[in-house]
């Protein structure tokens, strides 16, 4: 039972790391899947397979290597020199992703809570700093609480969509874009999110070390991500093309269902944005600490300030511009991950701090 509990914690942390600002708000699902019409279903299956396969492989390799951070994994994949350069690039990409997360929180505050965009950024930054003082244990705990509730409310959203007039549009919506763009899109989406999740999954895999727990967690987490992608696509496609006008499409859909569902869903969207932001900033700060001998809390503040400055460009422009570019950069990483063999892991050390 203890190993099953650990597997669920791994799965929820995997889901919580991927389900961030773009996913929870609906912008990512719209950008990479829903706009391709009835092709989106098979595309989501491809992405789900990538998450299960490479998510497990990444954590198992990290356990074998006892990797301290994602730079150790990149040096293993690309060699010492190229791995160092890839890690430098990852630092910049993670900064961009964190800026998107922070901007997503600001947009949520301005669109749905009638608060100033800048106030949303500052409140999120303060909450992030307070939680990160607890380290990896806090990241696991918050994902274990938030992700199951998010799954329940996603199911509610799907049920309400199935009762509406456009429930079958996810199968009938025409595909009017380039077939090549549709074929490439699930690989871009999977590559981008898997490479970004290194910041959390690499130290997590090394810390737990148990291959059975890690494989089981990757299967549960990967299938969970796929199910949530499909649920989001079903809800969004039923309201196309009007839903494209929103920065927070899922929030607009929740508002149609009713005020209580809307407010609870807005809170959950914020928490999903927040969990991914916390996890990514933690991994990024750990990576920076290997390069500069500055206290971790000071690095967290520095990263948050940089994200605040980048967040001034706004959520929609940042996501639609940066995410496809980052996906292209991540494809080479995914190909090397797929080619590399997982060696047998040493006997796992007791995972202190886990319950």
Automatic annotation (TrEMBL):
It comes from Cohnella hashimotonis. Residues 33-158 form the Amino acid transporter transmembrane domain. Its main location: membrane. The chain crosses the membrane at residues 36-56, 85-109, 115-132, 139-159, 179-206, 218-240, 260-282, 294-315, 321-338. It is found in: Membrane. The keyword Transmembrane applies. It holds the Pfam family Aa_trans. InterPro entries: AA_transpt_TM (IPR013057), YkvI-like (IPR038728). This is Amino acid transporter transmembrane domain-containing protein. The lineage of its organism: Bacteria, Bacillati, Bacillota, Bacilli, Bacillales. Keywords: Membrane, Transmembrane, Transmembrane helix.
